[in-house]
Amino acid sequence: MPGPVEIPKPEPPDVEEADCAGLRAVETGSVEDSVLDGLPIATPIESLTRCVLRGCDLRQCRLAGARLRDVILDRCDLSNVSLAGASLTRVVMSGCKGVGLDLGEAIATSLDVRDSGFKLATLIGARLDRCRFTESDLGEVDFDGATLDGVTFSSCRLAGARFPRARLSRVDLRGSELAGALFEPAALPSITITPVQAPDLLAAMGVRIEGLSP
User: Fold this and answer.
1) Domain boundary assignment for the chain
2) Other Cβ atoms closer than 10 A to 194
3) pLDDT tens, the chain, 214 aa long
4) What is the pTM of this model?
5) Under CATH, which number does the domain 80-204 receive?
């Protein structure tokens, strides 16, 4: 059995706090080497590079198609934000809110999501490579047609999550809640689970287990 996929950590910016130059950069749509604390950001952003955003309200921020590289989002609100078509490389999302977050057609490499709530998020057609989700609520997330390679879901809530037509490779679901999730039978060889999860996974594929299924 292959070991866990290592997630490279983002390189933090070489700054101590947000400064006027960083705030002006937000207005231009391209932010580099900045730390932004507790700000509501409503302007369109095209790129974030080597940045830390702490406690920022991004609900009015337009991020569709944006490029995020070596970024830490700590306790940010991404509810109903569109990151459709965005590129995320070595991005950490920790303690974030993201109900209804749209990551459709996004490309994520070494994305690390921790202790976050992304219920009802959309990842239709997204590509996830060497990503990790830890202790996060991914209930009813839509992975329709997504490609997942080397992705780990550790102690996550995946109840009601949908994976129709998804292409899975080396996906680790150990320790996650799978009740009500939807997988296709072709995904079985690409998934790692524990024995206790087997009934929920088989039920998610439409298999009726005598004595366990109603």
Assistant:
1) 11-60+73-77, 80-204
2) 11
3) 555 556 566 655 444 444 444 444 555 578 888 888 887 888 889 999 999 999 999 999 999 999 999 999 999 999 999 999 999 999 999 999 999 999 999 999 999 999 999 999 999 999 999 999 999 999 999 999 999 999 999 999 999 999 999 999 999 999 999 988 888 888 888 999 998 988 888 887 777 776 654 5
4) 0.84
5) 2.160.20.80
